[in-house]
Design brief:
Elements (H helix, E strand, L loop, with lengths): L1 H14 L3 E2 L24 H4 L9 E9 L15 E10 L4 H15 L7 E6 L9 H10 L6 E4 L1 H4 E2 L6 E12 L17 E14 L5 E14 H9 L11 H11 L9 H18 L11 H19 L9 H12 L4 H5 L1 H32 L4 E2 L1 H11 L3 H10 L3 E2 L1 H15 L8 H7 L1 H6 L2 H13 L3
The chain binds adenosine-5'-triphosphate and magnesium ion (3 copies).
The site of adenosine-5'-triphosphate has 16 residues, from strand 3, strand 8, strand 9 and helix 6.
């Protein structure tokens, strides 16, 4: 299914005059400011900004994506940290009408999705920019009834965000009614998560200047992204991404190893997290960029993923000193090797990375968890002191985010300032001067800061480079 979806998407857009691009690495090349590719458009930024692409003005691909910002959503039915995105682009060529029409045609004629299960959102307009009537009218003309078209504000339907300077514009999001029992309600309610977003078409149409003005862009672009895992679930007729060919073999293996049942709601979330993190770990560690667990930046994220995965395996009752990882890695490598040869080529490295990091953490996990429990039971003010968090980090190898997570499960917060203070003290003492040491981790754990690392950030940099500081 997965295989067919990618194939039919690519051939559909090739028929519409698009050239196929290879998937870029999940690690952005030559851009240390951006930790991971979070969307298919990210590697395409220079061309969206006007640099000519040797393959032409219409491009299509599938792309490896990783979103740390979605880490806390992992455990639900539709958000993964690592996922694949299908994308098609117009670099100053076709615009809203063609883009929307082709999305509609692909969904209803190629994937045979009944129109009654679709709803869309468009930009409602504000004091600077008129509402996106052209998109709405195109949807209407294709037969989407008006009660399935919602006009929403910039938070939902503007890219990247209203206060960002640089290229920007309205977008339209396409939703699918995932509830297999009940028919879709007449109006799209943005808070009803049975409406699952499957595709997002961005119309880059303005440039926002430093003085706040929006001026039309001379090269208007289209950037679309559709999630492979979500559409695979839709095609399989299930309302849970993990109940598809993509995830089931991994889930079954985790069930075998842990002797726990996915459908037992005591374990569903933990099993999803282990499955998700194992896949992300394999895809990051197999990348030719050679990311290895460390205390900074990408390495820190890989470390967090492995340690968090190990903690959940432990929670599922698995003896983590055993080799549970090899059979799971085997499945993931088999699934991806025909698309990404490096995953196969670097499999042994991946196993070594996981094993070494797991062993380091496994030795202290039980003690560390015991230590956290002890500290939590003694608390009076609902705040875990910074020095305890530091001890957990320093002695037991608990990434601060993991300590926070365990504490938060008990409605207890962590004194992060106190923790930072301790880190600093420790650094001053050992004079490693590695102030950077915790930056990656702490910065990335803050969604605000993390967003800076996304495409927007890249766009600003590229824009400055290409257009100067206008
Ligand atoms: P959502 O609102 O559901 O979080 P999004 O608006 O953040 O999605 P986009 O940035 O528009 O998502 O990405 C384009 C498409 O990629 C989405 O329409 C969806 O199909 C898919 N997608 C986005 N985030 C994830 C994720 N964490 N896991 C799986 N698929 C995703
Ligand atoms: Mg999202
Ligand atoms: Mg969305
Ligand atoms: Mg979206």
């Amino acid at each position: 299914m997965n295989h067919n979806l990618k194939d039919s998407y690519i051939s559909f857009f090739i028929e519409k005059g698009h050239a196929k691009l290879d998937s870029a690495s999940v690690i952005p090349v030559n851009d240390p400011t951006c930790l991971f590719n979070t969307a298919g458009m990210q590697p395409i930024v220079p061309f969206l900004l006007g640099e000519p692409h040797h393959l032409g003005k219409r491009l299509v691909n599938f792309q490896k994506c990783f979103r740390l910002t979605d880490l806390d959503s992992v455990g639900d039915k539709t958000h993964h940290t690592f996922f694949e995105m299908l994308g098609n682009w117009s670099l100053g060529d076709y615009f809203k009408k063609e883009s929307i029409t082709w999305s509609y045609e692909f969904l209803t004629e190629k994937l045979m999705i009944p129109i009654e299960k679709l709803a869309v959102t468009v930009f409602e307009g504000n004091e600077f920019v008129e509402r996106d009537e052209e998109s709405a009218q195109t949807w209407l003309s294709l037969g989407i009834p008006k009660e399935r078209i919602s006009y929403l504000p910039a938070e939902d339907n503007w890219w990247p965000s209203l206060d960002q300077t640089g290229p920007c514009g309205p977008d339209t999001e396409i939703f699918y009614w995932s509830d297999t029992e009940n028919p879709a309600p007449p109006k799209h309610d943005p808070t009803d998560n049975r409406w699952v977003e499957i595709w997002n078409n961005v119309f880059m149409q303005y440039k926002r200047l430093e003085n706040g003005e929006f001026v039309p862009l001379s090269q208007k672009n289209v950037d679309t992204g559709m999630g492979v895992e979500r559409v695979t679930a839709l095609l399989a007729g299930v309302d849970d991404n993990y109940k598809t060919d993509i995830w089931l073999p991994i889930i079954k293996k985790i069930e075998d190893i842990s002797k726990k049942i996915y459908d037992d709601e005591n374990y569903t979330k933990s099993i999803r997290i282990v499955a998700d993190h194992m896949r992300a770990i394999v895809m990051i560690a197999s990348d030719d960029a050679g990311i290895r667990p460390s205390n900074t930046d990408r390495g820190y994220i890989l470390r967090r993923l492995i340690r968090r995965m190990v903690r959940y395996m432990n929670q599922l009752g698995v003896d983590i000193s055993t080799d549970f990882e090899t059979p799971i890695v085997d499945i993931i490598v088999r699934q991806f090797s025909s698309f990404y040869e490096e995953v196969h080529r670097n499999k042994e490295q991946v196993l070594v990375v996981i094993k070494e990091e797991k062993d380091k953490f496994a030795k202290t996990l039980e003690k560390g968890l015991g230590e956290i429990k002890k500290a939590l039971s003694k608390l009076e003010n609902g705040i875990l002191p910074g020095d305890v968090a530091f001890k957990l980090y320093d002695t037991y190898g608990f990434p601060i985010e993991l300590t926070e997570e365990v504490a938060n499960e008990k409605n207890i917060s962590v004194d992060l300032d106190g923790f930072r203070e301790k880190v600093k003290e420790h650094q001053d003492k050992s004079r490693v001067g590695a102030d950077k040491k915790f930056k990656g981790g702490l910065a990335e754990s803050n969604p605000q800061t993390a967003r800076l690392h996304t495409a927007t950030h890249l766009l600003q940099a590229a824009l400055k480079k290409i257009l100067g500081n206008d």
